[in-house]
């Protein structure tokens, strides 16, 4: 452990990462970039945080496990080198495997040492620990916000004392109140029936008046010939 409370290799890795970031950033934007970068750096408090049983369970249920099979894989490195020269295009799986073995035998690539794997795992665990800390804090804030919202909704329900005006209270009460089934007495039924009969009679008279006022469009059919084939029908009795 170094004086910063972090593993030595992690401090060295973070310093190299910061230098690479600053070298690829313009001078006018370095201050802003450094401000945002400092919020993502692993701190000793992140590594020292202890999780409760409920927090561990929540992380297991809500976070997916992802495995990068290409990380620290010398065979994948060899395949990438061959792909740059298109030497594996349209080749069989047997040929590709033979080329990967040849790359290792001829030391085109070398397997990673146990120390390399341990250092890489240290960096990955440290960054994952900080990411999980951020997740847990965010989920906690979300639960607290939802709980406060639920409390506010319950307090705004009818029957609770609130600083709202009478008109607003009446509006909320009418909104949340369950609608009642309307009740009608006999007199109301008769009034409704009379109004309905009057409405129907008025609408029928309106339709008849409109039909009488509209002119009949001339037709090209021969109604005289039609009358000789079909007997005329009338609602009025014929004169005796």
Task: Tell me the layout of helices and strands.
Layout: H1 8-23, H2 30-38, H3 44-48, H4 53-62, H5 74-84, H6 93-105, H7 114-155, H8 166-176, H9 186-213, H10 223-229
Helix pairs in contact: 5-6
Word description of this protein:
With 240 residues, this protein is mainly alpha-helical. Among the domains are: 1-41; 50-155, no CATH class. It contains 10 helices and no strands. The protein has helices at 8-23, 30-38, 44-48, 53-62, 74-84, 93-105, 114-155, 166-176, 186-213, 223-229. α5 (74-84) packs across α6.
Summarize the structure.
By secondary structure, the chain is mainly α.
Instruction: Give the termini distance in whole angstroms.
Output: 127 Å
Output the number of helix runs: 10
Rg result:
43 Å
Order of helices and strands: HHHHHHHHHH
The global form is extended
Helix/strand-derived class?
mainly alpha
Quaternary assembly: single chain
Secondary structure tally: strands:
0
% residues in beta strands: under 5%
Mean pLDDT: 77
As a percent range, the share of helical residues equals: 55-70%
Q: Which regions have little confidence, pLDDT < 50, spanning 5+ residues?
A: 162-166, 171-182, 236-240
Largest sheet: none
Descriptive key words:
mainly alpha, 240 residues, disordered C terminus
């Amino acid at each position: 452990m170094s004086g910063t409370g972090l593993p030595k290799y992690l401090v060295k890795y973070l310093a190299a990462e910061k230098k690479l970031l600053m070298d690829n950033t313009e001078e006018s934007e370095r201050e802003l970039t450094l401000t945002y970068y400092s919020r993502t750096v692993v701190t000793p408090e992140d590594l020292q945080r202890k999780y409760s049983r409920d927090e561990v369970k929540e992380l297991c249920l809500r976070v997916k496990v992802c495995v990068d099979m290409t990380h620290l894989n010398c065979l994948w490195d060899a395949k990438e080198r061959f792909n740059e020269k298109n030497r594996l295009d349209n080749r069989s799986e047997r040929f590709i495997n033979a080329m990967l073995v040849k790359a290792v035998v001829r030391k085109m690539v070398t397997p990673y040492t146990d120390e390399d794997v341990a250092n890489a795992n240290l960096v990955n665990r440290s960054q994952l620990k900080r990411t999980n800390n951020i997740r847990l804090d965010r989920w906690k804030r979300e639960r607290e916000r939802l709980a406060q919202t639920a409390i506010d909704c319950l307090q705004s329900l009818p029957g609770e004392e609130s600083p709202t005006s009478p008109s607003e209270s009446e509006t909320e009460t009418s909104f949340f109140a369950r609608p009642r089934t309307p009740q009608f007495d006999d007199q109301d039924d008769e009034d409704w029936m009379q109004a309905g009969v009057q409405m129907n009679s008025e609408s029928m008279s309106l339709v008849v008046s409109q039909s009488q006022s509209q002119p009949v469009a001339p037709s090209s059919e021969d109604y005289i010939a039609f009358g000789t084939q079909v007997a005329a029908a009338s609602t009025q009795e014929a004169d005796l």
